[in-house]
Each structure stands twice: as structure tokens, then as C-alpha cells.
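CORE FACILITY INTAKE
Project code: CF-77B
Contact: R.S. (postdoc)
Sample description: multi-component assembly, two entities in total
Requested service: structural model of the whole complex
Turnaround: standard
Below are the sequence entries exactly as provided by the requester. Do not edit them.
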Amino acid sequence: MKKTIENKANKTQITDKFWGHYLEVVRDQVIPYQWEALNDRIPGASPSHAIENFKIAAGEAEGEYYGMVFQDSDVAKWLEAVAFSLENHPNEELERTADEVIALLGRAQGEDGYLNTYYTVKEPNKRWTNVRDNHELYCAGHLIEAAVAYFKATGKREFLDIMSRYADYIDNVFGPEEKKLKGYPGHQEIELALVKLYEVTNNEKYLNLSKYFIDERGKQPHYFDIEKKNREDERPFWFNNDYAYHQAHQPVREQDNAVGHAVRATYMYTAMADLAAKIGDEELKKASERLWENVTQKQMYVTGGIGSMVFGEAFSFDYDLPNDLSYTETCASIALVFWANRMLNLEANSKYADVMETALYNGTISGMDLDGKKFFYVNPLEVLPEASEKRNDKKHVKAVRQPWFGCACCPPNLARLIASIGHYIYSQKEKELFVHLYMGNETTVEVDGTQVQVIQKTDYPWDGNVSIQINPEKEQGFTLALRIPGWAKGATVKINGEGFDHIPLIKNGYVYINRKWKAEDTVELVLPMVIERIQSNPQVRQNVGKVALQRGPIVYCLEQVDNDENLHGFLLPRDAELTAEFVPDLLDGVVVISGEAERIVEADWNSLYRPVSDQTTPVQIKAVPYYAWCNREPGEMIVWINEKR
Amino acid sequence: MKKTIENKANKTQITDKFWGHYLEVVRDQVIPYQWEALNDRIPGASPSHAIENFKIAAGEAEGEYYGMVFQDSDVAKWLEAVAFSLENHPNEELERTADEVIALLGRAQGEDGYLNTYYTVKEPNKRWTNVRDNHELYCAGHLIEAAVAYFKATGKREFLDIMSRYADYIDNVFGPEEKKLKGYPGHQEIELALVKLYEVTNNEKYLNLSKYFIDERGKQPHYFDIEKKNREDERPFWFNNDYAYHQAHQPVREQDNAVGHAVRATYMYTAMADLAAKIGDEELKKASERLWENVTQKQMYVTGGIGSMVFGEAFSFDYDLPNDLSYTETCASIALVFWANRMLNLEANSKYADVMETALYNGTISGMDLDGKKFFYVNPLEVLPEASEKRNDKKHVKAVRQPWFGCACCPPNLARLIASIGHYIYSQKEKELFVHLYMGNETTVEVDGTQVQVIQKTDYPWDGNVSIQINPEKEQGFTLALRIPGWAKGATVKINGEGFDHIPLIKNGYVYINRKWKAEDTVELVLPMVIERIQSNPQVRQNVGKVALQRGPIVYCLEQVDNDENLHGFLLPRDAELTAEFVPDLLDGVVVISGEAERIVEADWNSLYRPVSDQTTPVQIKAVPYYAWCNREPGEMIVWINEKR
């Protein structure tokens, strides 16, 4: 096994104001609410039945299975969010509840290790007959992820043992050996989970099974056809009969362009990067890099949203990024964060961390309101409420967040991401400690046997001043590699108050500072946050003549509540001065961008068309962070603003 | 009965080059092809079965009904196109074929006058049980229109008598009397047809039945609910259960905004204007005017396309005019021509004729290729072939015309419109002769008992010089009212070579020239055709910063074949000189617009987003008439061009 870059940083305590708020919301709102939901105690909401399904499977309750075929995964994501939350904020009662759920899972598990309530309760003789549609392996993956997180957070083995037994059983069902099924999941997820299970167990069987699922995918004869024939299923597959929906249209290693369901795709790409790193697989690494370039350079919204098509919740084609039709599922942006994190393990290059940061500060957290009570499944870059209401082709674009979803994938996914935010800040490769994200936290890492405390302080994302104090228990030589974000121009670095020319130390976007660190050594990084007008590649046909405003990692938008209706009539001159101001009592405290723009005069129009004769009038515009939109009065919203012409 | 403005002009011979070509194509291609289609003799095409259905209904063939529930209407539209074509171009063989079809219709008619092959053959006991969905009254309407046209063209009464019997029967089924059904058609059409039937028969019963259908519509209790209950049909109506699809959501006279299926709506508006004129109904007139303003000032594409939504082939909401998602069915633009024609009967105002002209020269004939062999059902204003291929929400937007459709409504509808083009040029109100359209033709009208020959010569739409020679059989005083199109600035008028100030004679866009006309009096009208950059009302959010090019009545577009791909990257400076040139060997002879624009340099882009830094390079652009797009190599097309900013 090749030694790979791994995220060894742990015991990270978030002290950050921005993320601290989100952690608190997840802890105090989302996790308790979701627990009530899983137990069918939310008045008015359609029941989840997810806990009840496990009770029935365990023989402790009577009744029928109810819910989506992947209902088990809601329990998994909740347990994983709980695990990450406990890391930052111990809570005995919550942990006891989790332990009880885990014990229930154990009792619901079959003698052979099988653990899926849908099949156990509803179709006990049909296990593994439809891995294309029925999410058995997907649910297993989420449960494995939760078990690993719970083990890491609490040190308790019970859940990990349950899932290891299940994984052992799955390994007996699928694989290259003659009597095993040659299948792989219709919804990828278990591939990345098995890598995590390998990391904590060191059992290579799990790594090999993950690699098997990746390598078997898309081969001919096609497994989805084989199992379809076996179950005598004549129905065409709904996505125009195209297995590109599952990224199973061709062998994974040959894939160049991101296609199909964006979450499935991106979970798979995450596992590919994981495997490439763990086993030193150069071909998988190249495939990961090709797909990364395609997604981030041709199919990603400026907010880190991916998947521009409601049909199939899918990628469409290069540069096809309509702002008003986008699907940009919250889960897809979350998956992009996972993938970026794994690409960073393959290679410390700021292009990965830049995308991770973009998704974290924009397209993921836009999925939840500031109170953690309402959620967007779809994160469009342009909303006209009347269009969402009246156009069938835009009905997926909700003008306001919803309390919960029938398919409740996004809220718990966001909960587990936020609760684990500390895992994305650092990574370590032997004597190199990389700092990918800037946020207040206290972490302890081990370098060459020395415990090193790292204390980061910053008012990010509103201010680009970052202070990092290094406290090794004894003087210790190592490299601190600081990411300079792509948006930061003229960054400066000081050590213990002394500036120096850091430019020669930059490699792939990171400043490599190698020295013997001693207690209270302090690095001060200044990342100037200026307001940038961002343009799209001209092949993005929807955005020609438009700019998006960005400051630091934050992408801005115009909301009707701050401006007026018909936001398309606001024209921003290229040379208009824009100012940034922190407003503490707005949207839990945000930097607002203001300036004088022009607005097309509507009053002098009394027809639908006429020969050109522009009339504009000066108007003040006010832009707020995209992630925080729709936390006040509902209305129009746009990210891409027409420029003055 | 109030005396109304009526289209009395007849015996119009088209001598126009532009429309003469289309008449020839309809005569030589569309009508013969369609005849083969109706008789299932097109290899490879799915059978129409429409003639066979009539044979089965007549007891002259064995078999089952086949085809859409409205298959009869294809025969009707073919007969109507034949009738109009015979007016301009007698053809004994074609007329004999039509007579045979008409005789067949007669034999398929029931004793009671009923004539619908679907119900006669397939569900003989279920007549009038589902007027919401099953198009019985719609088919009757098209057959009535055809019968009227055939009577006017040939003087033969047989078809007219058949349809009068059917109309009499329908009048016995529907109406206010106690035992009659209180229904009205799900697809409007018979309302306008009954007015035509009244015009040739003078039987007020038909006018009253038309008015009954209009006035009953949308009343509560809702007839569609009543008949649904009667047939024990529990299914919700597919259009989100909203009768706005049928414009039956509220009483017709109360309607302010165009909603629902665009063709149904516009056929109904046509009948409303008809009725308002015929019976002097001020309330219906006001409703027609309100709806006209809504459609043409808030819901119409610059090409005269209407219906911006594929779901329901429907209007959406004010100013919602996406260029790449539009439905803009050919039939809907055709219906807009009908409606404009009727509004002109209500009031001679050039705003109606301007829209009629726009639709005729752009959004209707774009539905057919120059050879009359392939057709667009949907006429988008922006096409990217890859999007049509890969995005499910754009699959209705075809990148190339199709040979025929399963639902073959548009091709025969276009055929009958083109064949009847001569009916839209003039209208007469007592001693006022209005000239609405400019095209080469020779017409004879009767003014105050005097036969007046009118000879129009022009190279319209490429040249705005129009000569109109007036040849009364004896000197005759009357008013010639010439439309000055909204796009024409600085028009001049001469009579027998002498110019005069016509401005004081203009009323509602028409120059009223009253004089004693004698043989060979010639009016010369010059309508300067300059290239205009047209802007949209700023509430059309998709078109901010864009212009459409128009010259005379012709709207232009950019095609990839003349320019390059990524047409959105072409920027047209406001002050760029544009020149117009007639190119005889291009697209059967068109005026091409050329000029120097700029193009965003794509070569210096190596990312998806970056801070603003425009690089443009000069580029020649070439625009061709929109109606003629997609007659060469397929590719991208746009009507709305980004301006240089």
C-alpha cells in the first residue's frame, strides 16, 4: 500500500462565529427536530416511520413497512450528524438516545449480518434482486459512514461491529468469485463508506470491495440488464433507458464527462479519489482529475451548485448552466465538498480547496434557513416566484424553503456536513500540515510524535485577517502549508509580527512555511477581501453581459426585499463604486454590498417592443450573501446581474 | 342587427412573388402530400386513417377506428385548404377528389345529422358525454369552416348542406332550453365556424348557438364537472385540475388575461370578436379588446408567436417570454392572424393589422420549410441543438423541422392559412375600402353598385414601394384607407404621381383617401424599410441587454451556418452600421442584414469564472429572416442578440 495524504487532524473544536452558529442550529434545531420526525411526532408532517421500521424488523413492533425504499438512510444520517455533533459538544442524553437506536439496529440485524428494514419486513425473499433501483447498498453505505463517525466520536464499538458484520456479509454476496453477484449499487454511496470502514478497521477486504464496485460498474454484459432479466422486469428504465443516470453507461475509468444524477455521480467520484489515494491507482487518479475538471470548469454554478437539470436531478452538458431552471440540489453541493476533500488528499492544490470553500459558503448552506427550520432541496440562482407558481417546468424551483420533504435527503445531509465542518479545515501528510479553510478553531495534531496545538482566529468570511497560533509541546520542525484562495490578491503573511516574501514559497496555491515551531509562534495571514465582479466563460450563454458579485468566498445576490421587483431591470455599470459594510443586525450579521446602479425606466414603456431607446435612472442596489437569501420577505432573487451597456 | 364591418372583398388573385411561392408550395406540395397522408400512403409515416375512418363510418369499409379523437379535423382542414387553393388556382382533378370526399362525408353522416367518425364507429352510445376532452364540437367546427370555404370557392352546396344539417342537430342538443345540454366545447373552434355559417346562410340560429357556447362557458355549476359526474369519471383533470386550460375557469366576458392552451384561447377570442361585431355586443367587444391588449402587449413574442409554455401548450403569465423554452405553436400564431382579422372588423386600427402582419411574415410561416416538406410545431426564438437533444425540459424545441406529426394539426392549418392569404388583404365597410396588407394581387370589389378593380404591385416584404391602381368600371367616389405599418417612419403617398401631405388624413394608422376614383388612378405608397434594433419591455427579463433586428415586417435571426457557434458571444454595438442587401439565390431570395459586430474572445478563457476582463474581437455578422431559418445546415439560432456593453 502506498502511503497517502490523509486527514489525520482531529479533536477540532470550532470556536468560529460563523460556523459556530450553524453548529448550534444543527445541535439545537435540526438534530432534535429530525429525531421527532424519525419517530413520527411532527404534527402535520407525513410520517417518516424510519424508527418504527427498525422496530418491526427487530420483531418488537407489529405493522407494515412504510416510507421510501431508502428510509433507513434517514436514521443513518441522523446518527452520523449526532456523532459529529458530540465531537464538538458532548451531550449525554443525546448519546444515550443514539446508543438506544444503535442497539435497536443490532436487534434488527439478521443472523447473517443483513440489515435493511425494507427487505426484512416487506420482501424478505427478494434481497439483492434490484440493486439498480432499491437502494440496499446505498442504505448500507450511510449506516457504515454513521458507524465510523460514531466510533471516532465516542470510541464505542457496537455500531462499528454491527456494520462490519453487514459489510462482511455484503462482501460474501458481491465480488469477482464465481458464485457471487457481479453487481454494484444503483445509487453510489457504499464505495466511499467502505473506504472509511477500511480506515478505522485496517481491513483491506473493505477497500477491495469498494474497488470492486467501482471497477465492475458499466461493464458489459450490463449487470442492471442481467438482474432485470432475472426478476422478469420488462419495463424500460425511466431515464430514457439510459444508464448514464447511474454513471453506469461505460466503465468508470473511461468516463470523461459528468453525467446523470449529480449526487450519485459525485459520491462515486469521491470514492474514486479515495481509492486512487489509498491504493496509488494512477488510472483512477487521472479519471478523477478529468471528471473534476469537467465538473468544476464546465458544469458548476458560481455558487458551487451542480446538476443543472430537474430531469434525473442530473448534470446536463458542458456550459449549460441556466440560472432559473437549475436543480443544484443541496445534497449535490454537499457531495462536491466531500469530493474536493478527497482530491486534496490526492494532491494539495488550492483549486480543490477553492471549490470546497465556494460550496461550503454558498451552495450548501443556502439549503437551510438561518434558524435551521426550513430547507431548499433546489438552490436556483434566479427566482421569480410567479414563474415557480405558474410554470410547470419551474415548479421544482421553490420560491421559499419548505419545512421538510417527503424525500428528506437534504436536511440530514446538511446536518452531518455542518456538524463535521472541523474535518475539512486541515489535512496532514507526515510533516506537512495543510490549512485548507479559515475559521476559528482549536485543534491538536501530532507531528513526528509531538503534540501540536493549533489555534486559529478569524472573522472569516467577513474579514480576511487570520491568526494561527502554533503551540507544540516542544520545539518541532514541520511545514505549515497555508492556502491562498484564488480570490485573494495581494495576500500577506507575517510570522510573529514580521512580514516576509511568501511568494517564492507558494506551490499549487499553498504557502509552505517550514521552520522549527515553538510555543506561541503566530502566523498572521491577511487575505484582502475586495468586491469582485465575476464573469462567466462566454460559452455559458445565460450569463453573457452579466456579473456576479463576490467578496472573499461569499457570492452575493439581489433580493426584491432590499431592492424592488423586476431585478433584471437593474443594470450595474462596470465602474460603479461598490462598498462593503458589515451589518450586525441583518441576517445574523453579514457584510452587505451597496452601490449606485442604474435601472431601466419602466414608466415610459407602453408597449411590449419598440426601437431601441434606453432610459435609465440611478438607483441604489444592495446585495446580500446568496446563502442567506429568503430569510425575510419572499420575492425575486438573482445572482447574475445585468451590466450597464 | 347592427350593420358591421365585413370582409366583402373576394375574387382576389395573388400575383405576389413572396406569397405566390407559398401558394405554389401549398398547391404542389402540401395539399398532395397531405392527401396521401390522409389515405395512409406515406411510406414510413404512421397511418392517419382519417379517410378510412369515414369509410368505416359510412359502412363502406370494415375495421376499427384509428387515430386521435380529432382525426376528422385533418380531413376538414385539407378540404378547407383545397377550397382556398381552388379560388386562386382552379384544378378540376383536385375539385373532383374533394367532391368525392364530401360525398363520403355525406354517406358517413347519421340520419339525425350527426357526423363524427370516432363516436359513430367506436362509441356510438357515448356521443356528447365528454365534450371537455373529446373534440366532437371541435371537429364539427373545422368541418363547418371547410364547408363554408368550399361553398364560397365553388358555389357547390352539398358540403354546406351536410354541415348545416349537422349544425342544426347540434343546435338541438345544446342550448338554454330545458332538455338540452348546457355544454360547450373543450377545444373552442365551432364558435367561429358557426359565425361563418351564419354569414353564408343568414340563419341566425347559428349565430345564437355560437353566442350560447361563448356565454355558457365557465359558468357555475361547471358543465365539465356535471358531465364528468354523469360519466362517473373520478380522474382529476391533468392540467393541475385547472379549467383555465380551456379558458373555462370563469365566464368569458369577465376574462382579462390570456390563460391556458393558446390555440383554444385564440380561436375563442376570434369568435368573441366576430360575435361582438355581428351582434353589436359592447361587452364582448370590451372583453376582446382587453384580451388583445394582454396577449399582444404582454404575452407575445416579437415574431408573433404566442404560448410560452410547453405544459398545456399554454400562455404562462405577463412578460414571461423565455426564448429557449417557448412553445409558440405554429397553430397559435395562425389563430392570432384569425383574431387580428376579426378585430379589424370591429375597428380599423393598424395595431391589429400590425400584429397580423408580424405573425404572417414570421411566426406562422416559420412553421414550414421553404419546400413545404417539413414542419415546426414549436417555433422557438433560440435554439441550441445540444439543449434540445439533452435537456428533457427542452425536448419540445426541435432543432430541425419534422416531416409530419402524430398530432398533425399545424401543417394543414398552415396550408389553409396560406391558401386563404388573399382574404386578409382588404376589408370593406360600405364606401370605405381598407388595405391592411401589401402584396401583389388583383381584386374586384363592389362599391355602391360599382365594380372596382384594384391592382396592387409591390416587392414586399423586401421593398416598401407599393403601387395600387384603382379601376372602377365608372367614376366612383369612395375612401381608400391605406394602413401605415407601425414600423414605417416617413411614409409618403402619391396619387397619379403627385405627392401630398397625408398626415392629416391618418386615423388609427390608416390614411383615409376619399375621392372620385376613375380608371387607372394610381396610388403610390412608399414605406421606408430601415433596419431597426428592437428592444423588449424591460419586464421581459430574458431580453434585457438584447436587441432583435427587424426590417419592414421581417424579424431577423442569426444562424450558426452564417456566423459561428456560440451565437451568444456575438455582441452588437448600438452604433454598428448594418446594411441590407437582397440576395436572390439565398433562401429563395431574401434581404440579408450584415454588419460588423464584436465577439467575446473565447481563446483567452481557461476557466469557468473569473473577474471581469472583456476581450472582444471584430466579427462580421449576417442575419437572415427568422421565417427562413433552418433551411440549410442545422445549428444554433437566436433572434435576440446581445448588445455590446
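Facility notes:
- The first helix of chain A runs from residue 17 to 38.
- DSSP finds 16 helices and 23 strands in chain A.
Invoice: internal transfer
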